[in-house]
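Quick start: load a record and inspect it. Here is DNA repair protein RecN:
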Amino acid sequence: MLQQLTINNFAIVSHTDVELKSGMTTITGETGAGKSIAIDALGLCLGDRADASAVRPGAKKSDISARFGLTKNAAVHEWLEQHDLDADDNECIIRRVISAEGRSRSYINGQPVPLQQLKQLAPMLVSIHGQHAHQTLLKSDQQRLLLDRFAGHHSKLDTVAASYQLWKKLGKQIHTLQESQLQRESRRQLLQYQVDELDQFALEEGEYEQIEQDHKRLFNGQSLLDGANNAAHLLSEDEQVNACQLVRQVLNQVIELSETDQKLAPVVSLLNDAQIQLEEASHELNAYSESIELDPSQLQQLDERLSAALQLARKHQVNPNHLPQQHKELVEELAELTGADDQLEALQQEQQIAWQEYCDESDVLHQLRLTAAAQLSEQVTLAIRELNMPKGLFSVECVSLKNDKAAVHGRDEIQFLVSTNPGQQPQPLSKVASGGELSRISLALQVLTSNQQATPTLIFDEVDVGISGQTAAIVGKLLRKLGEECQVMCVTHLPQVAACGHQQLNVAKFSDDEMTDTNIHWLADDQRINELARMLGGDTITEHTRANAQELLLTA
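Running the structure step on this input writes:
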């Protein structure tokens, strides 16, 4: 429940700090005093849209904080734990700061949080019913939400929504595949031609580099043969002079010199090695020359394969040595496109299954709604008859729509009907109910549906507009009864409702020539009598109005 609300520099409030209580609290005050200002501030604290106008004139910022007790509120505990915002002392403190420039910051248990997180948490703590709630009651979506809230079948709604979203997702995937089917077939034919061509050429990984090397060797075969023979001739085969003969001569001369000076021994060793290396080189050159085959037909084959590879590479706009990788990628893409038709058929089957699951879940939801509609019709009828509509008849019509009307919340169309006179067939609210009647029906629905939700704090902001007298007293009793089960705060201008509160807050406005301020404070018993007397008789309070006020309190 809401335990404390602290407001600093909000609108016409400079500072107020209110400790709140359980049960039903009524909030009253003179017209224009700002009775709804605490609720507006709380709404802002819980994530309502903020701008610079929220800041009190002359102040740098508006600072609003709300402290909630979390006893028996496991859902909030779980949410806080999931977001690493653990509650100390079984409490949750929410704070919102709005600067004079319109910027805002949000905090949960002292930690800065995005505004979106604040909006997620708020409905678990407080449910606010505004003074214009009866106007939204005319909308079919709101009527469906109220029925579902009364029924409390949230898990079934989630199941229906999940099956609907799966069906829609599969439908989008099918639509995408069908739209691209012609383009996909054209692409598949091109890929098939390209893959067949590359299959026929069958270039292996690394083969192009080998072809280049073999082609270069065969193309220059005669030059290689002539060069190798000439090198071998210079090394060892020239009868007049060759490299091996010259090295032997030098070696013999250095051997003779080393006999005189041993320092030349390393030179002898080097020359010996050089002689051996030259002889081996000569042998390798001769062997290489013998291995060279001048094969024009093989050269022609290599030339043709090299030209074909270059032509394919230009066609696919890749380097020739990348053709094998290109071939692999095209094969994979072709397989993917070839399987697209199979995928389309599989998706269509999945969608049929998903649709049947959605229909089954929607049918179950429809039956749940029918049961809840009958119960809500009976209870609202009883409630509005107590609210000075003695002949009133309220009914909830729940019609299952055709298949093409599927929606995330099921296939039902919900409509609230009312009859205010005997013999009159129930008709839609917008066609029958007057403003006062609509207000009473709305209040009955809010009380009945609020009783079904887990939110520990319910706030009603002048929802009793349009009613008075005996009806107002009954409204007060309804709200007081609700306040025995959860925390109820009610802004009201009716003394009959105000008297039903377990306690009462008063909002007073003070003005001078320079500034206006609003204050919120608790009323003691004598003060409550004076305030109720003012609400009954206006500015002039008499013993008669005080007596009436005291009687209202005693009756409540």
